[in-house]
Each structure stands twice: as structure tokens, then as C-alpha cells.
Automatic annotation (TrEMBL):
Listed name of the protein: DUF1772 domain-containing protein
Pfam families the UniProt entry points to: Anthrone_oxy
The keyword Membrane appears for this protein: yes
TM stretches of this protein: 6-32, 53-77, 89-109
Keywords recorded for this protein, A-Z: Membrane, Transmembrane, Transmembrane helix
Amino acid sequence: MIDGPYFILTVLGVLGTGLVAGVFCGFSTFVMRGLAALPPAQGVAAMNAINTAAVTPAFMILFLGTAVLAAVIAVVTFVRWPDEGAVELLLGSALHLFGSFGVTAAANVPRNTALLRLEPGSAQAAAHWPTYIREWTAWNHVRTVASAAAAVAYVLALA
């Protein structure tokens, strides 16, 4: 069984990945649907406001801190290679680092940046909005599943 500081790291990994999955799940299940129901100018303005407001210390500590924690868990697992749970720990870390953090950096943030450059009431924003909603939400589903699966993998490492 995993014990000591390694146990604490893993429990924090479960908590962090679970909370991140919850944030992403909220966006996938109702926030993006609500924004899509708005006229494009209002939807673009609201999403830009959300993206700006998301960069708060609380969320960034959760999001970036969980990514750092996943990396630490992976490194410690390689160095210590525990008798139990090593595969689950590495899988959880990989899922979160690539499927959550990596997808955010490679897919969601560039879309947010491009949306922020558009004037909400412009024809260009109105034309771009349906594509943004569809693509951003699809990638957000990936982040949601990856973060939740990472939490499950960490829990299995503790079992």
C-alpha cells in the first residue's frame, strides 16, 4: 500500500484532478449550451468575459498546481517505483498532463485567444461563433474525460 508523503501526494492528485474534471464537466454540460443559446454577439462577449475572469489565483493554483502535482507524482513514481500502484500513478499523471493540461494549451487556449481578438458584434464574430462553440466544447469533453480518468487512476493506485 502507498503510504507516507507519497500517499498524501496521491490523495492531493485525486482531489486536484477531480476538481479540474468538475470545472470542465460544468462547461461541457451546461455553460457552453447556455452560451450557444445566446445571440452570437452576446455569446462571444460572455465567453470572453469568462475566459478573462478564469485567470484568477484560485483557478490557476488549482489548474497549474494539479499539473505540477501530476508531474511530481510521475517523477516520484519513476524514482521510487512502488510495489503497488505504479502503473495507475503513471497513467493518471499522463492522462492529466496530456489530456487535460496539454489539450488546454494546444486546443482550448488558442481558440480563446482567437475569440478574444474578435469584436463581439462583428459579422466575423457571428460567423466564427458556431465553429468556436463546437470545437471548443469537443476539446473540453476530452479534458473532462481525461481529468476524471486521471482521478480514477489515482484512486485505483490507492486501493
